[in-house]
Structures are given as C-alpha cells and as structure tokens.
Specification:
The structure holds 2 protein chains of 2 kinds. By secondary structure, chain A is of the alpha+beta class. Among the domains of chain A are: 59-123, MutS, DNA mismatch repair protein, domain I; 221-273, Orthogonal Bundle (DNA polymerase, domain 1), CATH 1.10.150.20; 289-390 and 398-459, Dna Ligase, domain 1 (2-Layer Sandwich), CATH 3.30.1490.100. Chain A has helices at residues 2-35, 39-42, 59-67, 93-96, 106-112, 123-140, 160-163, 166-181, 193-202, 216-220, 233-241, 247-252, 255-273, 303-323, 356-368, 426-444, 452-459, and strands at 51-56, 76-79, 88-91, 117-119, 143-148, 151-155, 185-190, 208-210, 289-300, 326-337, 342-353, 375-383, 386-387, 391-393. In chain A, strands 5-6-1-7-8 form a 5-stranded mixed β-sheet. In chain A, strand 5 (143-148) and strand 6 (151-155) form a beta hairpin. In chain B, a hairpin with a 4-residue loop joins strand 2 and strand 3 (42-47). Classes of the chains: A alpha+beta, B alpha+beta. The A-B interface holds A 325, 388-397, 400, 407-412, 414-415, 431 and B 151, 171, 173-176, 242-244, 246-247, 249-253, 278, 280, 318, 320, 341-342, 344-346, 358, 360-366. Strand 14 (391-393) of chain A pairs antiparallel with strand 27 (362-364) of chain B, so a sheet runs across the interface.
Chain lengths: 460, 366
C-alpha cells in the first residue's frame, strides 16, 4: 500500500525532474559561457568526475626530439652546459633511465649518463607549442588553469553535452595534441585537482588514468605520503617517524591528531589523504609578480656589465607585463654573491608602470645599494601588479618623478589650436611608442628592438 | 606676578592659546603657557614653534607685574571647571597659585627663560581686512590642500597679494581651489607665502567677530594676523608651490548650470555603491539632462538623473565624487556653473564670486 502510493508520488517528479535536468544543463551551458567557474556550484558538492590534469611528457626534450628525429631513442636533455654551471631543465625518458632528472646540475647528469645529448633550451619555441596546446584545451572548456608551459588543469563540467563526458574529452584532447603537435600528453581524470594530478602521474609516460570516486581508497592507500601536495621531504620525515609511510596510513589517523602535530598543514594533508580537495580550477589566476634572473657562467664583478644585464632583464620583464596588460609598482633586485650569500633590495614606486626604462631607473637605484663583489646571479622582479585598465585619478601638475618638457597633460589645449601628435605626458607618449615597438617585437622577435644603451653589446 | 581677572575671559584665552600648544614636545618648555602681566593687561602666549598666539585680556587688575610659565594642559583644565566670577593668579610664593572663591590650585612653574621668543605684530606693511572675509577665504580653500605625504608645498595654502587682490590657493595635485578678494593695499604690492594647513586652523579660531577689522602681514618667514586682542603667527613652508595658474582651464567646450544641492545629493546617492578604493562616478551629459552613474566590481551599479540646461552632443567625464562634494559644499549660490573640455582634461566649477574649483577627472589608461 505504502509502496504503491510512493510509486504514484514518484512518477510525476521523475518525469518533471528529467525535463528540469535538461533545462538546468542548457542553462549551465549558457552560464558556463559567461561565467566559467560558478558552474560547479549547480551540481553541489558531490564532485562529479570533471577535472582533467594534462601534463606533457618530458616536454622540452620531446619538442627537441620531434624537431630532430635523428635524436629519437637517445638520452636527450635540455639545459645549460656543465662548464657554465648549467642545470637540466628537462630530460627524455631515455635519459631518465640513467637517473637524469630536471633541476639536476648538468655536470652530475653527464656523470650519470656520459652519452647524454645536451641541447640548449629555446623557450620561444616551447612557448609557441604551449600556445597550441592551450588552444586545444580551450576548444573543450573555457575553464583552463595553466600551471606551466606544459601543464594545466581543466574543468569540463557542463561541457558534456557538447563534447561528451570527461573521459571522452580527455581522450579527444590527447588525440588532438598528438595530431597537431606530434607530442604525447599524460592525462589524469578525477573528481578533484589533487586526484587528477596524481592520476596523470600514475601511468606516465603516455598515460591516461581515470580515478573514479569509488576507487579513491584503492588508488590512494598504497601511495607514499610524499605524493601529497604539501608533503615535502621534512614533513614526510616527520610522518615517517610516526610510522606513517603511505597515504592510507595517514588517512587512518585521527584528523585532530594530525592537526595538533602539523597545524593547518595537517588539516590540509589529512583532507587530501581522504581525497577531499576543495580547490577549484580557476582559469585566470591573477598574476602576482613578474621577474627575470640569470645565473652567470662565470661570476661578474664589472658593475657596468651587471647594470647592462639588469637593464636587459627590466626590458624583458616590462615586455612580459605589457603583453599581459599588467603594470607593477614594487621593484626588487636580487643579487647572489660568489659565496652564495643572497640579498634582495626593493622599493615601491609612486605609481604603476610597465615601461622598461622606468623599471630600470628604480632597479639601478636598488642595485647601487648592492655592495660591490663578484655576482653569480642577478635578477629583477616586479610585484604589486594591476591591470593597465585600472582607473586612475588624473593629476593636475603631471607626475613629479617624470618631468615633461611639454605642458602637463592636465593643461587643456587652447580652443581652435590643432591637436598635436605629442599630446600627453612623457610617460603617455612612451607608452604609445612602446605599443608600436611591441608589435615589431612580436613580428620579428624580441631582439629586433633594444634600448640604445644595450645596442653596442648586442652587436659585439 | 599677581593679578585678578574675569574667569570667563581667562577661560576663553587659555582655550584659544592651548589649541596650538603641544601636549608633548622634545622641548618641554613649550608644553607650557606663558602668562605675562603688564601694567594693565594679562597676555597669554603659546606656541608649537610652527604657530604662535598672543592673546591679551585687558580687563585685569594687576597688583604685581611679571612673567610665569605653567603647564598649559593643567591650567586650562583647572580654569575651565571653575565656577566663581573672578580668578586670581599669584606667583609671589614661587609656585603659580590659582584661586577662585574657595577653589584653589598651586601649580609648579617653569623657568620662563626657556620659553622661545615670540615676535610682535608690526603694523607697518600690514593690510586691513574684514575678519569674516578672511576666514571665508580660508574655508573656501583649505579643504583642497594635500593631506597624504607627498609634495611638501601642497600641505599648505598659498596666500598671495597681487593687483590689489588677496588670493588663496590650495591643491593636493588632483583638485585645486582658488579664491580672490579685493584687498586694501598700496598699488603694486606683491606678496606670497605658503602657510601650513595645520597652522591656518587657529587663525579662524581667533576670528570670532566676522565684522571686526583685522590686519594681515607678510614676513619673510611668517604670515601674521592681528585682531583687537590677539596676534597669531604661522611659520611658512619653504617650498615651491605648483604653478596653479597653468592648470586652470581658460574656457571649457561644454558648459552647464546645475542645482548645487541637488547635485550633491545625487552624487551621495550614487556613490554609495562605489568602494572606498575605487571612488568614481560618471557624469553623462545629454540634451537637458545629466545622468550620474557609479559602478563597482562585486557590488553593483547605481544611476541618478537630474535636469541640466546642457546643450550639445552627448559627453561624459568621470570624477571622484568626494572631490566634487567637498567643493560643492562650499558653493555660495543655488546653482553651480560647471565646464569642461573632454574626459581627460580638468573640470572647472564656479562656486562663487572670484571662487574657482578645478578637479582632475579619473581616466582609464589604454
């Protein structure tokens, strides 16, 4: 009796719910287009299988091998030369078999693998390939969070009707990447970011791994604790001293105990050990800083030469800022002496800028505060970034730190007077000039234009 | 010294002089008020080394002349709460004894030699002006002076005499207030001084009667004002005031008359949605009306409409509403005349006779 009336009660809602679901999905699709990340809220916290982690296999090395097929099968690494204290940026799987790892000094890598084919990195090429890959991702979902040139998180919730479920999308992406770049990607599909990243790593290279919600425990339990994001060498050691070596052991501990021992990190790693990861895929993580630093093949003591390098970095950084439509306010200069003593000096400017000359003006000031001595590393970084389109309160008297020979921008032109091409402050005019210069740089390469102060060296 | 004076007059004098006396100083002597009893008057002197005030009480019975230094804060607080009609101050015993009816305080005095020398107002080279006129010029401008650290000279009000005009100018680099009034001075007189904003406040404090005739004087190092019973001196800012006359727009392409109080209320209304770090409202003028729009990311949007006798093509300009309201509050007539040229050039408000307020708009680069 009761069950029959329940059946009647349920019949209508099921039909109704089905229609509702279609409507919600359509709404979601539309909403996704305009709003992105909000979509997952619609589906609540049951965390469907929608997150992909795509990681290119030995990216730099694979790109090099692709462009020089005769290297296929050889242990290849991309990095700086050992005689200039270089480090390995990427190693092919053949090289990895010898124990060569990225971030390893090249001298050690060559000792491990005497036949190592060492190639100089060409980042412009990798950036180009990276762009193609990111474009492929965006064909399937707007929610792409790049982690580096060759790695990204994707959230495909709401895209199922267009491209199929997450697994189908993952396979399609892998196929597209192979077809369009001849490179191989490893993909992990899971309900959370942590699990997706773990999954892509499990079957590497050429991996495609899905972790369903119900197999979390079987996958996680046997893994070493240091697979958890946030568990580094020291935390792993401390966990090890408690007899905790696998994720399963960590998960079986009481949450309170872990929090007591490890603080907020404890809560975080305990959650991850249970597959709980509230982080969303955020397509536009606001950038917080931009910088450039170089370790020199030989320590440099010549202040003039160092300043030139610094200017060069400032130009590079300013170009990167302009490309991203950003400007920054705080400049830091970092210097490492021969004895590895490292110092940084920073200063916040009166206003935001993305002009190389302005950044250098402050960086040089900071560099003057670096004591003399041979440097093995010099770099510049700019922080306190904002969008260039941020509204600015105009100034009546122009900027005090950038005097202009022209009347200030605030001064209106006389009625009837023709508008001069040079209207605006010195800074505004420089900005306009930079727009043109950047176009040239994009078309002919960054080396096509350089400030006069750097030109001689470029020739020599 | 030994004197008898009216309690209310003493209270008023101490309160005015104390307004400049610092409560804590690296030079402790100036934390005191200096009382000077002459044949027929008591003078109260206080200074923070930037501003100095002499305040004279005439209606005093002096039994014994003399000078004494006593803590300004304690004397001020004690005298303020006295209730009897008269007060006697007696330092013949060495301490400062203040007596009023049955109330009595014996305060420790400080050696008066440690007190800095405060100048006397020189009548020659000074110019007469109505007290009310001068304080109005100050309140017309002082709000526009800079408060945040930055260009030092902008932390003061420029006071200058030129072509028989007294002109006060204040700016923080983003808005500028200029006011002019006639000054009775010999032809060809030209004076110029920058008075710290903080130093100008006590000036208006001693100008209690707007119809009183006072005198102002320009000195190389200070600006001074004298009333019937008080003299005040402010040390000048030694700096270069921005060339303000260059930034006052001659005549804008767009001109409009607006109801000043209505504009203030509409600006307040709309700016409620803006956030503290992004204060901006868009004034969009179209034939016969003005639309005021404010938007803030993550908050929302607000719009207000008002009638405006605007003629011409649709134009808009963005301002910080606080800057506009600051100026409009000073507007002396019902309607304000506003003109501007384009969205990157300053807007000019005519707020009264000889009173101009210029505000730089907010622009979006790129």
């Amino acid at each position: 009796m009761a069950s029959r009336s329940l059946g009647v009660l349920w019949g209508f809602p099921i039909v109704f719910l089905f229609h509702l679901k279609v409507i919600i999905c359509l709404c979601a699709l539309w909403w996704k287009k305009c709003a992105g990340t909000r979509c997952r809220l619609l589906f609540g916290m049951d965390e469907p299988l929608t997150i992909l982690h795509v990681d290119m296999d030995a990216f730099y090395a694979s790109v090099e091998v692709r462009d020089a097929p005769e290297l296929a099968g050889l242990p290849v690494a991309v990095g700086g030369r050992s005689d200039s204290r270089g480090v390995i940026a990427a190693a092919s799987y053949e090289a990895r078999a010898f124990g060569v790892r990225s971030a390893m000094p090249t001298s050690i890598a060559e000792r491990l693998c005497p036949d190592l084919v060492l190639l100089a990195p060409s980042f412009e090429k990798y950036t180009r390939v990276s762009r193609t890959i990111m474009e492929i991702f965006r064909r399937y979902t707007p929610i792409v969070e790049p982690l580096s040139l060759d790695e990204a998180f994707l959230d495909v919730s709401g895209c199922e009707r267009l491209h199929g479920d997450a697994i189908e999308i993952g396979r399609a992406i892998r196929r597209d990447i192979l077809k369009e770049t001849s490179l191989i990607a490893s993909i992990g599909v899971a309900p959370t970011k942590f699990l997706a990243k773990l999954a892509s790593d499990l079957d590497k290279p050429d991996g495609f791994r899905v972790i369903q919600r119900d197999e979390i425990r079987t996958v996680l339990d046997p893994l070493a604790v240091d697979k958890i994001f946030g568990v580094g060498r020291s935390t792993a050691k401390r966990l090890g001293s408690l007899g905790v070596h696998t994720i399963g052991q960590l998960a079986s501990l009481e949450r309170e105990d872990v929090v007591e021992r490890f603080g907020s990190l404890g809560a975080w790693i305990h959650d991850l050990a249970h597959g709980i990861d509230p982080r969303r895929v955020t397509p536009r993580r606001p950038e917080k800083s931009h910088g450039m630093e170089r370790t020199y093949a030989e320590d440099i003591e010549d202040r003039e030469l160092l300043k030139r390098h610094l200017y060069e970095y400032c130009e590079e950084v300013s170009f990167a800022l302009r490309e991203r439509g950003l400007q920054g306010k705080t400049i830091s200069v970092k210097a490492r002496f021969s004895n590895f003593k490292t110092i940084t000096r920073s200063k916040t400017m009166d206003r935001h800028t993305n002009l190389g000359a302005r950044i250098y003006a402050t960086a040089r000031e900071l560099f003057e505060r670096v004591p003399p001595g041979a440097l093995r590393l010099l770099g510049v970084q700019i922080t306190t970034l904002e969008d260039v389109r941020t509204a600015h309160q105009g100034s009546l008297f122009g900027e005090p730190d950038l005097p202009t020979s022209e009347p200030s921008a605030a001064k209106p032109f006389e009625p009837g007077e023709p508008l001069r091409a040079s209207k605006g402050t010195k800074e505004q005019r420089l900005m306009r000039a930079m727009k043109g210069a950047d176009k040239l740089r994009k078309k002919y390469g960054k080396r096509i234009l350089a400030p006069g102060a750097l030109v001689d060296r470029e020739k020599g | 010294m030994k004197i008898l004076c009216n309690r209310e007059q003493l209270r008023e004098g101490l309160s005015i002089v104390s307004s400049v006396i610092p409560s804590k100083s690296t030079r402790p002597a100036i934390e005191n008020v200096c009382l000077v009893a002459t044949e027929n008057a008591l003078e109260l002197v206080g200074t923070d080394l930037e501003v100095a005030i002499r305040y004279r009480i005439d209606d005093v019975k002096v039994a014994e002349t003399g000078t004494l230094l006593v803590s300004a804060r304690v004397a001020n607080d004690f005298v303020r709460d006295l209730t009897e009609e008269t007060v006697t101050i007696d330092s013949t015993s060495g301490n400062c004894v203040i007596t009023s009816g049955g109330d009595h305080a014996e305060l420790v005095t400080v050696d008066s030699d440690e007190f800095p020398v405060v100048a006397r107002f020189q009548d020659e080279n000074s110019f007469p002006i109505l007290a009310g006129t001068f304080s109005k010029q100050v309140s017309r401008t002082v709000f526009a002076a800079a408060r945040e650290p930055g260009r030092y000279a902008m932390h003061g009000v420029l006071i200058e005499v030129e072509d028989s005009q007294l002109r006060l100018v204040a700016t923080d680099g983003r808005r500028l207030a200029v006011t002019n009034t006639l000054l009775d001075c010999p032809e060809g007189t030209s004076k110029r001084s920058i008075v710290p904003t903080k130093g100008l406040q006590p000036f208006t404090r001693i100008l209690t009667d707007p119809m009183a005739r006072v005198r102002i004087a320009f000195d190389e190092a200070q600006f001074a004002l004298k009333t019937d019973n008080a003299e005040i001196f402010a040390r000048l800012i030694d700096g270069e005031f921005p060339k303000y006359s260059q930034v006052v727009p001659p005549e804008g392409a767009c001109k409009v008359e607006l109801d000043a109080s209505l504009l203030i209320s509409k600006l307040r209304l709309v700016s409620t949605v803006t956030s503290a770090d992004a204060r901006a409202v868009r004034l969009a003028f179209a034939e016969d009306h003005l639309q005021i729009v404010a938007k803030a990311a993550g908050r929302g949007e607000a719009t207000a409409q008002m009638v405006a006798n605007y003629q011409g093509k649709d134009v808009d300009i963005v301002f910080n509403p606080d800057f506009l309201i600051d100026g409009l509050k000073q507007c002396e007539s019902d309607t304000v005349h506003f003109e501007f040229t384009d969205r990157t050039s300053p807007g000019k408000f005519q707020l009264g006779q000889g009173y101009i307020y210029v505000v730089m708009p907010i622009t979006i680069d790129a």
